[in-house]
Amino acid sequence: MPYLVSVNVARPVPNPYKPSRSTGIDKQPQPGPVEVRAPGPQGTGLGSGLVGDHIGDRAHHGGDDQAVYAFAREDLDAWQLRLGRPMRNGFFGENLTTRDLDVNGALLGERWRIGDEVELAVTFARIPCSTFRGWVGESRWLKTFTKVARPGAYLRVVFPGFVAGGDPIEVVYRPGHDITVSMGFRAVTTEPDLLPELLAADEFLNEEIRDMVARRAAFTLG
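Above: the chain sequence. Below: its structure as tokens.
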């Protein structure tokens, strides 16, 4: 059964990679339960969906649609082999490191129950930024990461509560479309011809992604 390997949060540290004064990308596994709750709007809310976690650039990260970030331990293992260096839980800035869960194959709008209380809904893929590039420190890192198209998933909080490493994860709802996290990522990065297909998941798209789809449609018609 899928489960949480660890729950990871970060304290603020200086950010040398972009104008924001601090970053929370250096997330560390926590020994005990962590509270999860909806953080509110991006920019004006609490930032992260995990109590005690830090979001530095709240204008572009955090908020209800990016409340929690999940990344598969299997993908960290693959990057370890490819890059020849250790990748601990939380190193990619993820709040939840999972095992035996198809994070990138999750459908937009899919819901996960974690432990006895928390329920989260998949919103979209993580789009890598300059902080991530600088933090990992590999040459042409954003291009390499993007080409693999296994970005991990952002989630919103449906039901709050506490989560901890070892908690089981159950997929409790899958919507009736076939738009996965990986496909959405490819549509907005390397394969813009896929953008119109995202309309199959329209009810689960945020305004920014809908705008991208509309611009692509106008370009095609023009």
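The mean pLDDT is 94.
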